[in-house]
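Need a sequence for this fold. Nothing fancy.
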């Protein structure tokens, strides 16, 4: 049944088409591809060619690899290597953004310019760069150069470590996990975890934590800032989401991947009158630009460009038969796309020097010629429009509001001249808002698509917990209508009151996966505002990845733990074979950093543990509970209204 595969009605309808036509998708392949139970639990070591060694047997205490490595050492190595790979992915993204900013500032990439001077000045302030009496180009050169130095430096500290709460900085220094340079820590992880080097699981995992910080407080945070400088800091925009945003009578061009450098240019080029006339000459009414995955989030939050969906929607978009070209760069792009596209007219266009796919057309992107390349890609899609065959576009889409940067949150809570997080802190202190949950991460076809994101988000907002989201998790909830003010119908009385007063949804879209660092900044601002402790681990907040699948997720989860957060992942644990490592990343890390990482397969249990944690932190801060009936008539949630019946409730409240 398609409902077991996804709660998204558009995906369900496309899966029926795929089944009827014998089309292979991730949803069907996952049924035939059983996971290796040994590797899935972190019990397989393949770092040398004496093995691979499988850590299975009746006497776990006696298990050893050929080199003598214990199961805990092997599980820790595997975990650390995944963190290093995930950190490399997001940090390399940040490097490319800094390189483009540098080229733009020097006039070598004329299609780009500094769009947000205020953000440029703020970032220069973080970096100790002078702004008075200097042009924006001069400042941008220094900012980009300083950002790039964070990747290659061999000693010292990453620049943005200074942005963390003071108490957190002191703790990192005490633990010896402040990153020296992005590249150095990633390389050292690979060295430490190769055969015959680091054998101590705890020691390995502490360096994994250090490496993850190069992502959260390094490459990813730099990427977010460089993107804001180049393309503008996001403000809330209205748009639409799901496969129903594809159009029958227009050229459908889908951007997919993670880096906004090309997608920003395509967004600009798609509105060029000459390009639009070219589309009309082929019989189309215009050009319809949409996105998949994190590239979708980038152009959504800055331009309001509709999203066709999240990770598991990428094959479904092609099965509609309406996509004339899908343009990809790096990360989360399925290798099956080209074979699938061959059944239709869709052209898959790769653009990155780092990523090619057999069978795809390759148009090399170069930031120095960005606009001309963007127009070439669009014309390729236009030329393909007449080749369309039968189309089956589901009539499924939802409205959404996206683009809540931490700067905008500060503005909306205090205005232009008095922007701050005071109102949010006061709402938490009073108990109107019990706490916050960051629900982020991918889809995984071994889970029902979007179900975990939807269930947990509804439970949290019903219980007066503000939800912030990024990436595919945000799109999952957008497809269910939860990223709109109308979702307040499902919110508890305290959260609803605050959101109505401020004019925001109860679920805030903060951007793409690299923009998880906006959550770190929000948490830091809340700490610095006062009244809720001295560090991130004092806050009544949790982080959750219900349907994770990527190494990047492990890197993100680990840097949040290192920052003091309680993090829960849905599904199986990649270190399940080692009770020792399981203990180290939960209780062990909690003793050191105040944060911990747990893997829990049941969504209800994730919610229960999260609320227990939030209440524990509220109790430690000596925060009270809010009694809405003391100030106004009894508030009734949508769930309670449905359960008890609207007529009965109206009679109660009229008495």
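Here you go.
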């Amino acid at each position: 049944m398609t409902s077991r595969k996804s709660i998204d009605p558009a995906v369900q309808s496309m899966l029926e088409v795929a089944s009827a036509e014998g089309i292979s998708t991730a949803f069907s392949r996952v049924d035939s591809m059983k996971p290796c139970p040994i590797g899935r639990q972190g019990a397989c070591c393949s770092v040398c060619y004496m093995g691979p060694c499988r850590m299975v047997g009746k006497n776990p205490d006696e298990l050893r690899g050929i080199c003598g490595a214990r199961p805990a050492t092997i599980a820790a190595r595997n975990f650390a290597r995944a963190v290093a790979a995930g950190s490399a992915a997001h940090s390399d993204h940040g490097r490319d953004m800094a390189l483009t900013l540098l080229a733009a500032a020097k006039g070598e990439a004329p299609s780009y310019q500094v769009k947000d001077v205020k953000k440029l000045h703020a970032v220069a302030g973080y970096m100790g760069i002078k702004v008075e009496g200097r042009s924006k180009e001069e400042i941008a050169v220094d900012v980009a150069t300083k950002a790039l130095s964070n990747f290659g430096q061999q000693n010292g500290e990453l620049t943005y470590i200074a942005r963390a709460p003071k108490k957190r900085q002191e703790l990192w220094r005490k633990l010896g996990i402040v990153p020296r340079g992005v590249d150095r820590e990633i390389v050292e992880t690979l060295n430490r975890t190769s055969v015959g080097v680091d054998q101590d699981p705890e020691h390995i995992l502490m360096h994994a934590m250090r490496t993850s910080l190069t992502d959260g407080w390094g490459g990813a945070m730099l990427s977010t800032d460089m993107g804001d400088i180049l393309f503008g800091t996001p403000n809330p925009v209205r748009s639409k989401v799901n496969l129903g945003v594809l159009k029958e009578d227009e050229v459908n061009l889908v951007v997919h991947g993670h880096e906004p450098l090309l997608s920003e240019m395509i967004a600009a080029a798609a509105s060029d009158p000459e390009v639009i006339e070219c589309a009309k000459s082929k019989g189309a009414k215009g050009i319809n630009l949409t996105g998949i995955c994190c590239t979708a989030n980038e152009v959504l939050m800055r331009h309001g460009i509709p999203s066709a969906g999240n990770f598991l929607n990428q094959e479904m978009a092609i099965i509609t038969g309406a996509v004339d070209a899908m343009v990809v760069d790096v990360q989360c792009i399925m290798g099956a796309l080209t074979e699938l596209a061959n059944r239709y007219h869709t052209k898959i266009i790769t653009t990155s020097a780092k990523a090619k796919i057999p069978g795809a057309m390759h148009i090399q992107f170069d930031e120095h010629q960005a606009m001309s390349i963007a127009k070439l890609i669009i014309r390729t899609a236009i030329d393909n429009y007449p080749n369309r065959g039968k189309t089956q576009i589901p009539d499924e889409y939802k409205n959404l509001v996206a683009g809540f940067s931490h700067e905008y949150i500060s503005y909306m809570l205090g205005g232009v001249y008095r922007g701050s997080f005071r109102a949010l802190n006061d709402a938490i202190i009073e108990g109107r808002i019990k706490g916050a949950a960051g629900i982020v991460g991918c889809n995984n076809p071994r889970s029902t698509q979007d179900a975990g994101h939807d269930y947990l988000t509804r439970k949290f907002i019903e219980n007066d917990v503000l939800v912030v989201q990024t990436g595919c998790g945000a799109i999952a909830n957008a497809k269910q209508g939860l990223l709109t003010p109308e979702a307040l119908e499902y919110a508890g009385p305290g959260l609803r009151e605050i959101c109505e007063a401020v004019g925001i949804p109860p679920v805030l879209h903060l951007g793409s996966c690299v923009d998880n660092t906006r959550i770190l900044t929000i948490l830091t601002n809340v700490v610095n505002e006062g009244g809720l402790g001295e560090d991130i681990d004092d806050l009544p907040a949790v982080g959750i990845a219900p349907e994770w699948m990527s190494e990047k997720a492990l890197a993100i989860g680990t840097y949040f733990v290192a920052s003091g957060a309680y993090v829960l992942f849905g599904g199986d644990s990649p270190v399940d074979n080692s009770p020792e490592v399981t203990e180290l990343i939960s209780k062990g890390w909690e003793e050191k950093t105040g944060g911990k990482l747990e893997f829990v397969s049941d969504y209800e249990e994730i919610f229960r543990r999260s609320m227990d944690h939030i209440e524990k932190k509220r109790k430690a801060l000596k925060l009270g509970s809010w009694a809405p009936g003391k100030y106004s008539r009894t508030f009734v949630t949508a769930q309670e209204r449905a359960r008890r019946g609207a007529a009965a409730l109206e009679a109660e409240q009229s008495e």
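For context: The first helix runs from residue 2 to 5.
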